[in-house]
Design a protein that fits this description.
This protein has 511 residues and is an all-alpha fold. The chain is built from 23 helices and 5 strands. It starts with 8 loop residues before the first helix and ends with a helix.
């Protein structure tokens, strides 16, 4: 008897598309009339804009299934280009070894609790912007020996890597591989990768403070008394001190490349922060003053295209892609990478993320089948769910969504896959529950996205996948010891994230 193997995320999302197709034979489409604010059940709108009642059952077939994927590529193109450009940029950055050299430099300059807090922040930022996770095993070879030399244990190094990255991933300020995938799967034109950045920033800060405090608490205890290490009794643990690896030197070129990474992160956050909506027009003008100044310089302003530059605060996925593309070219010129070599590395980075693009296209196909917020089966679901969820406290939705996504993560360890599978349907649930509330449909979907990244990445932080098991095997630390150490901190992070998401609608931080 063959052992069951979990299908790939492509197959899972495609199966969800087929389910949506089958539903079209049983669930009628409905229309939301924006003028009256009422839902007209079992109705469609013809080419002339007339509402045809009683004709809402529109069946889809094989042609529609395959064409929905084609249309999915079209409608998710801005997100896909952003993801591909991010992949190319990161490939070039890794190629010049700037990130590894920068981290080694920080390890040599700082000591004690300051070093732990700084390293936690570095990996949290990498997680919240780029979904840092797969690279952990490679960085363990550098991080763990350094902390062992500083008087800590192997688990301290593992905690800085895994918990630091988990903090960032659970918040995912502008992570294209989770937030970007979720926004694309929902298909709401009012959502961008910057939607909810205030809420997720608060989650990031709170989780960072909790996680860093708990890691420092453990590390200080171990440094004072090595016998208090959770792995003290293990005889065959490997601190990687004998690993023959020449760390890259932090040269001037690598230092400049590291600054490019910092600049890219800052620019993306500034571009997606809702300056005018939260702080007023004066703040918007102030943060965009350098752009306005450049646009006014004769010749130079024209050459730079400053007059066409999208103002910070109004950014979307196109500007997200532009930033990574620009960063990649800057890295090329700083490091004097030959044209052929640069294109090979950049294209390899893009190629590694083509799978994510395919998942996004299929998930947008699901959204095409299900419908929009004004027309389709989605409006019927909204009508049904609005009635069923009437009277349910808003905070219940936040907590339940986090827990549901943590459970989904057991069966599908792919953020883009989970987003593609769930967002077209749960996005409708969020819209139904929050329709008519202070935060509205978009606010409900922002909460859903925040719950998604928190729940799925919480599960990933201890799921026995290739990254965790490979890294633990590298240092000969049993999986149960890692769980014994990490679960208390991870559960605290989950509780804090769920609590913030639950109370967010009541305190006005859903932005």
């Amino acid at each position: 008897m063959k052992k069951f193997k979990m299908p790939t995320s492509y197959t899972v999302v495609f199966f969800a598309l087929l389910v949506a197709t089958v539903l079209s034979y049983f669930v009628p489409q409905s229309h939301f009339d924006s003028e009256t604010g009422k839902i007209i059940v079992n109705s469609v709108v013809d080419a002339n804009g007339n509402i045809l009642e009683g004709q809402g059952l529109v069946q889809f077939g094989l042609f529609d299934v395959l064409m929905s994927i084609v249309h999915g590529f079209e409608s998710s193109s801005n997100v896909s280009v952003g993801i591909l450009c991010a992949g190319g940029f990161l490939a070039v950055l890794n190629h010049v070894e700037a990130l590894e050299a920068a981290i080694i430099s920080l390890l040599n300059k700082f000591k004690g609790n300051v070093l732990i807090a700084l390293m936690m922040l570095v990996f949290a930022i990498l997680g919240t912007t780029f979904g840092f996770w797969e690279e952990i095993t490679a960085f363990a070879v550098v991080i763990i020996p350094m902390f062992v030399l500083a008087g800590y244990d192997i688990m301290t190094g593992l905690a800085i890597l895994f918990i630091g990255a988990t903090i960032g991933n659970m918040a995912s300020l502008v992570n294209p591989f989770s937030v970007g995938a979720a926004v694309a799967a929902i298909g709401n034109p009012d959502l961008t990768i910057g939607s909810g950045i205030i809420l997720r920033s608060i989650i990031f800060v709170v989780l960072y403070l909790i996680g860093t405090f708990m890691v420092i608490q453990y590390a200080s205890k171990v440094k004072d008394d090595p016998k208090k290490s959770i792995i003290y009794d293990l005889e065959d643990k490997n601190n990687l001190m004998d690993v023959e690896a020449t760390p890259p030197e932090f040269t001037g070129k690598r230092k400049a490349s590291a600054y490019v990474l910092v600049a890219v992160i800052i620019l993306i956050v500034l571009g997606n922060f809702p300056w005018e909506r939260l702080l007023g027009e004066s703040a918007m003008n102030a943060v965009n003053a350098p752009i306005t100044f450049l646009a006014g310089i004769p010749v130079l302003g024209d050459l730079l295209g400053a007059g066409h530059f999208t103002l910070l605060g109004d950014w979307g996925f196109s500007e997200f892609a532009f930033t990574f593309l620009l960063g990649a070219f800057v890295l090329k010129f700083i490091n004097k990478i030959p044209e052929r070599e640069f294109m090979h590395v950049f294209m390899d980075g893009m190629k590694d993320l083509m799978g994510v693009v395919v998942v996004l296209a299929i998930s947008r196909g699901i959204a095409t089948m299900v419908g929009t917020s004004t027309q389709g089966m989605s409006v019927t679901f909204i009508y049904w769910l609005s009635s069923a969820l009437e009277g349910v406290p808003l905070w219940v939705f936040g907590i339940m969504a986090v827990l549901v996504y943590a459970l989904i993560g057991i069966f599908l360890q792919s953020t883009s896959g989970v987003a593609g599978l769930s967002m077209p349907i749960l996005g409708t649930v969020a819209a139904a529950l929050f329709l008519g509330t202070a935060i509205g449909e978009v606010g409900g979907q922002i909460l859903l996205i925040s719950a998604f990244v928190a729940g799925v990445n919480f599960l990933s932080s201890f799921y026995p996948g290739a990254v965790i098991m490979g890294t633990l095997d590298l240092v000969n630390v049993p999986y149960d010891r890692y769980l014994k150490f990490a679960m208390k901190t991870l559960c605290m992070l989950l509780f804090a994230a769920a609590l913030i998401i639950a109370i967010a609608p009541y305190i006005g931080i859903v932005s």
